[in-house]
Amino acid sequence: IIILYLFVKYYYLLNINCINYRNIVFKGDKMKMNLVLELQDVPGQLLSVLEPISTLGTNLVTVIHQRDFKNERGMIPVQITIEGERGNLKQVIEKLKEMNITILELDGVVVKEKLSTILIGHVIDTDIKDTMDKINALEGVSVVGLDVKLEEELESSAMIIVESDAGKKAIVLNKIQDIADDKGLLVVNEV
Questions:
Q1: For the whole model, what pTM was predicted?
Q2: Distance (Å) of CA 184 to CA 116, 155, 160, 180
Q3: Which residues are registered as beta bridge partners of 147?
Q4: 3-state DSSP: the chain helix, strand, coil percent, rounded to 5?
Q5: E strand or H helix at 135, and its extent?
Q6: Do residues 147 and 83 lie in contact, with contact meaning Cβ atoms separated by under 8 Å?
Q7: Residue 95 and residue 89: Cα distance in Å, rounded?
Q8: Nearest in space to 163 (alpha carbons), one of 100, 106, 102
Q9: How does pLDDT run across 68-79, given as a tens digit for each residue?
Q10: Would you state the pLDDT for residue 131?
Q11: I need a surface site. Which of 119, 130, 132, 162 has the fewest CB within 10 A?
């Protein structure tokens, strides 16, 4: 009886944690959804993201918008919580994707990952466009930033910022290493 009691108690607690984590509201088909978006720091960007939320029949519950936390490209992570029918929430996600808004997290699950890597050597001479094209050829991966540093010497360096679907970091880093090996470049990856 004690074992059964402990099992029921912990099973109940685990389910409550799961419910709180997912923020599911058991009222018909309504639920809450937490999103972390990446927005440009320009006037009207946040407003444009909020427009489909209201027009597609969902409610805005919270917005956390902190301009002090810009990433290396000047983008701002914005956390929002929305509430509505499942179908309406799916429509909002689809609309945000159509608007090319990057969704970094969806209900605590990382959707997109970013990584930065530096290539050192004859980056320009070995065709930087070719390097970017080879990285972009990976499914679910795109180069979203490039910063080239030219010195008076022949060698140069480039910081490449790559955005990929979750779980592809190792594939991206391996591809970059392969490209660098082929072109005689040194790679410095983020830790």
A1: 0.55
A2: 19, 11, 17, 6
A3: 159
A4: 35, 35, 25
A5: helix 128-136
A6: no
A7: 10
A8: 102
A9: 777 766 788 888
A10: 92
A11: 130
CB 77 within 8 A of CB 48: no
The predicted-structure confidence for 129-170, as pLDDT tens digits, reads as follows 999 999 989 888 888 888 888 877 678 889 898 888 877 888
Count of alpha carbons within 13 angstroms of residue 55, beta-carbon side: 11
Position of tokens 């983008």? Answer: 75
Nearest Cα to Cα of residue 120 among 149, 83, 77: 149
Angstrom distance (rounded) from CA 152 to CA 24: 58
Closest among 183, 163, 191 to 119, alpha carbons compared: 183
Q: Are 89 and 107 in contact (CB under 8 A)?
A: no
Chain CA centroid to CA 100, Å = 12
CA distance 78 to 104: 10
> What are residue 97's phi and psi, to 5 degrees?
-65, -40
Q: In the numeric block, which tokens belong to residue 162? A: 């790559």
